[in-house]
Amino acid sequence: MRFDMNNTVLRQMFRTLARLIISACAVALMTACANQGSAPIAGAEVNSQPAYVSTQSVLPSWQDGNARSAILKFISDVTREGAPSFVPTEARIAVFDNDGTLWSEQPIPFQLAFMIDQLKSAAPSHPEWQRSPAFKALMAHDVSALAKNRKELLQMLSVANSSMTTEEYDQSIRAWLASAKHPTLHRPYTDLVYQPQLELLDLLRANGFKIWIVSGGTSEFMRTWVTRAYGIAPEQVVGTQEKLKYVVRDGKGVLMRQPGFDFVDDGAGKPVGIFRAIGRRPILAFGNSDGDREMLEYTATGPGPSLALLIHHDDAEREFAYDRKSPLARFDKAWDEAVARGWVVVSMKRDWNSVYPGPKAAAAQ
Amino acid sequence: MRFDMNNTVLRQMFRTLARLIISACAVALMTACANQGSAPIAGAEVNSQPAYVSTQSVLPSWQDGNARSAILKFISDVTREGAPSFVPTEARIAVFDNDGTLWSEQPIPFQLAFMIDQLKSAAPSHPEWQRSPAFKALMAHDVSALAKNRKELLQMLSVANSSMTTEEYDQSIRAWLASAKHPTLHRPYTDLVYQPQLELLDLLRANGFKIWIVSGGTSEFMRTWVTRAYGIAPEQVVGTQEKLKYVVRDGKGVLMRQPGFDFVDDGAGKPVGIFRAIGRRPILAFGNSDGDREMLEYTATGPGPSLALLIHHDDAEREFAYDRKSPLARFDKAWDEAVARGWVVVSMKRDWNSVYPGPKAAAAQ
């Protein structure tokens, strides 16, 4: 019996992280140079039309259309007792990607912004970094120098985000979230959740669904804020898993964060993460990029009724526009598969009346 | 950044499994030779006395004494609003080991009995095994020959319990549980859950606790039956994790079981498994062996009130008696730590009026 670990996902994570960091620095550079003001964020003026009788009041931020109709029809189908499409409550499992599906993820995933800030905060304790070409490149927003020194940068990131207890790390995430602002939208990151999705989560819960977040980010990062933001309990978060070691420190049992990951919850990892955490196949999955493709496929090829949805970020005015050629969160293969299999592609521009919660959305509820 | 996996736990799992299999075969040999009848299973005649006013009706299978009093006092403390010991509902996390804590585990953990039966069932598809010294030793209950060929036996076990989808494996567990019987008690394995623990689970739930099973067994094995047996949902099971690979087969996304484990949920692995699944430190932990020591320590050294409990299997008449010198599920270091730290040691003989559910227990409820 061989116990060798699957290093493929780790290599993939390494490459992905490296690519993201380079992108992050490019964006930081652009942002610094442009010194631009706040991007406009406003709800569209279109009023939603009822898809079904007596559903006017649900999903008010969803514009009437194929996406909204498909959601309402699916919920109606699986909750109608006696119908062949009926699904008992305990099997009403819904899974949502987080970055780009429940909140924004541009210009870089917000957890990565946090990790880079952790590295900067840790720098005074690491005087040796001052001589590091990678650190110098990061501070100078020198993208080409970063690309040349990315392995060293990853090592520094890993050090800055480990060697502490999970409780200390948790505190550092909370402290960061309390003060950090998005580089171009100039709002706290936790403001950048999607209003239409909050309404969908509420509607699913009201119809007996249990909802999990299934994200490439780490569970630990998400758990500090998802209950407040989405009403989702910490134990309903499935994410990438950092290495941990149990030790006793000052008479107290604690978990020390170790460099590296034990499990990467992305791509073909998502069905594995779902099965391990939930033990059942979901009947609804919502994503936005190629990293969600397998999660949607796993959901959509189950034995009973299912609904697979993907957000297309096509709204540069209210949020961001990126798809097939995006260096991160690429939406390409998943788009092709959506077309081929009849999955629902949600256009942020056409299907959502509003993007972020605001006075207008709050008043409408 | 190094991505090497922690092979220590895997080596440990390998050694443990090898030891268990040898024990299993020794037991099978003894059972075959003795050809003994059914062991007596009966509730004791002692009636429980109320620990507190108005608590007569709770925990009827628990004999009045330190253990029952400690449980009732703890529940009262953490649920009394306004008291310094009050714990809000969302933090009322309880974790229970499974084998030996919620159901019996002798003469060998029941999942291991299943795995060996899987191996025997798979034998016709593996004619090469007929020539294997390990397989011959297993079929002949030849313990010393098994000890010499344990690596080969582990390889066969691993093969017999992989190379199928999670859904196929799930069906094979259900089929086995429906017909398999305990070798000496001659009852279905799922009958061998502990009546006093069923009452404790009910009482905790009634007081706002959310309960997880945290076991060295695999989540997959437990999830097929724990909801029916204990009222615990599949997603509240934390266990050892087999390797899985997502593939598309006949157009359907499935998870193929691979040989080996990604995570071993035992000893110092239990706090890691708890943190990853729940994200919070429990306030109540219940175990019965050295493999639970770190879980109890992690729980008992948390910042607020906590209760750590261990069952001492000292009841050879109604169940089994084993502790410091047991080759499996040894209760030695955890016992010492319980004494040193004031954890509650539950004597099965003195603290439980009944062991398994029966007509008497059912009538009392």
UniProtKB/TrEMBL annotation, chains A, B:
<feature type="signal peptide">
    <location>
        <begin position="1"/>
        <end position="34"/>
    </location>
</feature>
<keyword id="KW-0732">Signal</keyword>
<dbReference type="InterPro" id="IPR023214">
    <property type="entry name" value="HAD_sf"/>
</dbReference>
<protein>
    <submittedName>
        <fullName>HAD family hydrolase</fullName>
    </submittedName>
</protein>
<keyword id="KW-0378">Hydrolase</keyword>
<dbReference type="InterPro" id="IPR036412">
    <property type="entry name" value="HAD-like_sf"/>
</dbReference>
<dbReference type="InterPro" id="IPR050582">
    <property type="entry name" value="HAD-like_SerB"/>
</dbReference>
<dbReference type="GO" id="GO:0016787">
    <property type="term" value="F:hydrolase activity"/>
</dbReference>
<dbReference type="Pfam" id="PF12710">
    <property type="entry name" value="HAD"/>
</dbReference>
